[in-house]
Amino acid sequence: MKMVDHADTAAGGELGAFALARDEFARRWASALGETARSAGPRLVDLLAEHSGRLHAAVRHDPYPAASVQQVGRSLAEFDLDSATTLERSLAFLGEHLLAHFGLPAERTGRLMTVIGGIAAGYSDALRAHTLDQQEPTRSASVRTLRKAEAALRVSEAKLHAVFRTNAVAIALTGMDSEILDFNDALLAMLDYTADELTERTARELVHPDDRAAVTGITGALAAGTHENVRAELRLVRSDGETVPVFIAVSLVRDDAGAPAYHVTMIESLDEVRALQSQLVRQSLNDVQTGLANRAQFLGWLEGAVGAKGPDSVALAVFDVDGFRVVNDAFGHEVGNRVLTAVAGHLREVFDGVGQVARIGPDEFGVLLRDPADTPTVIALVEEAVDRLAEPVWVGENGIGVTASVGIVARPARGADAADLLRCADVTLRWAKDDGKAQWALYDPDRDRRTRSQLVLAASISGGLEQGDFRVDYEPVYALADRSLIAVEARLGWDHPEHGLLDPHALATLSACTGMAVRLGRWAMEQACRQAGAWFAEFGPAAPVLTMDLTARQCQEPELVAEVRRVLRESDLPAALLRFELGERLPALITEDQAEELGILAEHGVRFVLDQLGGGNVPPDRLRRIPLHGVKFQGSPVHGLAEGANPADESAAVALLGWARTLDVPLYAAGVGTPFEARRLRELGVTGAQGPLFGASPLTADEVRGLLGKS
C-alpha cells in the first residue's frame, strides 16, 4: 500500500491523493470487520471513510480534538456496530495500520493510542446513552436495558484491555500518587522487569533522576487543565541500571465528577526510532548499486567545501563513462551495473584518502578534492583513474572495458558557488566529449564565457521565433550566359535585438544544440514557399526557382513527403520551382528509406542539387541513392579558377568540374567573386552562379520582387 501524506492532497473540489488513500483505508477497515458488520448495510464504507479522515486529522494535528474522536466511537455504536468483536477488530485495525497507511511518523504513536482510547470512551458513552434512550416505563424493561448496557460496557472494557495488552507500544496506567496501576507486556520488555517487580515500584522510580522534575511539571499541567495531553522526551531506567531514551505521550483521565483519576502514558523507545531514521538518512544519501554517496550527498559536500569553514581551494573532477549505452544494449542492465560497480571501485582506489567520490548520474561520477597540492597533481590522479577504467570486466568470454571523459575544475574555495562549480565541471566534461572522448579537459573561463554566450543564444531560439525575430532573405542565382535571374537561395536569418543579424551558418550550429533545427527548417520552408508562390502568381514563368537547404536531420522526419507537399499546396507553388540543396555528406548519412522518400518528392517534381562544399568527390554508389538534378560547387573548386591561382589548385578544380560534367546534370557555383572566375566557370560547363560578383548581400522579398519587375 502506497503511503500518502495529507500535505500533498489536491486543493479545491478535486479528489486528491489523500481522498483516494482515505477511501482505500475505509474499505480495508470494513473488510477487517468482516461478518461482524454485515448488519450495517451498504453505507458502511462511506461512514468509515468519514471517520478515517477525522482520525487521520486527530493523529496528525494539534491540539488533540477529544470531542471529535469520541464522536467516532459514538457513531460506531449508533450504526449498530455494537458487537464485541466489531469493536475489537476496529481498535486492532486502527492501532496496526493507521500510521503506516497515511505515512505518519512513528512519533505520532502516542497520539494514536490516545485516539484509540477516545474511540473506546465515545463508544462506551454511546452505549450508555442508548441505554437511557431505550428505557421503558416498566421496571422489567429498565432492568433489561441496564443489563444490556452493562454487558456492552464489559465487552468494551474487555476489548480495550485486549488492545492494551497486545499493543507493540509500551503503555502504563498510573495513579495520582505515581503508583503503577497497570501496564502491558511491551513495557516489561522495554525495561526488562517482571510483572511482580514492576508492580512494586512507582512510576517516578522508573524515571531517570535528572528527568523527574520534568515529569512533575507534566502531571501538574494536566491536572491544571491547561493541556489535554503532553508529549516529551526523557529517560527511563532499566532493571540493569541502563538508561533508555524514550518519547512519551501522557493523558489524564478524570472521573465522573471531573476530578483527576489516573494517567495513561504511551512510551516509545527513541533508540529504535533513531536507528530507523539513521537508516533512512543513509538510504537517501547513498547509491544502492555502487555503495558510493549519491548526488544529494555530493551537493552537500560541495556546499560545505565552499562555506566559511571550508578549505582554501578545491578541485572537482566529473567522470562520464563513454558509450555506456553500448554496454547496456549489448549485454543488458545487469552487466552494465557490474561495470558501474567496477568503475566505482577503481575511483575509490585512486582517490581513497585524497578525495570524496560519489555517483552523481546514471553513468557519471564526481570526485571532490579539498586543498589539492596543485592542478598537475589532480590531473595525474585523473589520468591514473582513466587508465584503470580500461581494465576489462570479464563476463563469460567477454572482457568489457570502458573509457571515460573527465571535466576538471580547480579554483579557490572561499566565495565560490557550489552550483556554479558543478556547472563548470559539466561544461568542461562536455568539452572533453566534443573533442573526442576518452580524455580529460581543464576548465577555461574564457572558453566558458564564449560557449555560454552561444548556449544562451541557442536556448533563446524558440523565444525569438515566437516574437517574430526570424526572417528569410534571398541570394539571387544568375545564368552565366546572359546574367538573367534563374533562382533565389533562401537564407534564414535571426535579427537578434542585441547581437544583430545572425548568419545561417551560426543558426545551423545553434539550432543543432537545442533540437530546433527541424522546427526552424519547417518555418523557413513555409515562409519561403509562400513568398515564392506569390512571385509565381505575379510573374508566372519568369518567377525564379526557390532553392533551400535540406539537412540530414530533416530527412529523418517520417512525414517529410507529406509536409513538403502540404507546404507546396498551401503556397500554390509548383513543385518544379522548389529545389533542395543536399550537403555533400548527406548521401552517406541517410538510410535507404529516407533516400526513397527523396525519390518520391522527385517524382512529384521537386528538384535536388548536391552541394559540394569542399569539392570532395562523393562515391558514385552513394550518388545513386538519391535523385540528382544538379551539382553546386563553392570554395576551392571556384577560387582555384581565379586569376593567378596556384596551378595545382587550378588543375584540381578543372578535373573536378570535368568529372561533374559526366553526371549530365546542370552545374552551379557559389561564392563567385570576379568576372574572371565567372568566365572560367562558364567555359567549364557551369550554367548558374551566385556570390559577391552579383551582389554583396542577400535581398529581401520586396527587393527580389523589384528585381523581377525590372526584368
UniProtKB/TrEMBL annotation:
Sequence ranges assigned to domain GGDEF in this UniProt record: 312-445
Domain spans labelled PAC: 230-282
EAL domain residues: 454-711
Record-annotated PAS domain positions: 156-215
Protein's organism: Saccharothrix espanaensis (strain ATCC 51144 / DSM 44229 / JCM 9112 / NBRC 15066 / NRRL 15764)
Pfam families given in the database record: EAL, GGDEF, PAS_9
Upper classification of the organism: Bacteria, Bacillati, Actinomycetota, Actinomycetes, Pseudonocardiales
Coiled-coil stretches: none
Record-given protein name: Putative diguanylate cyclase/phosphodiesterase with PAS/PAC sensor domain(S)
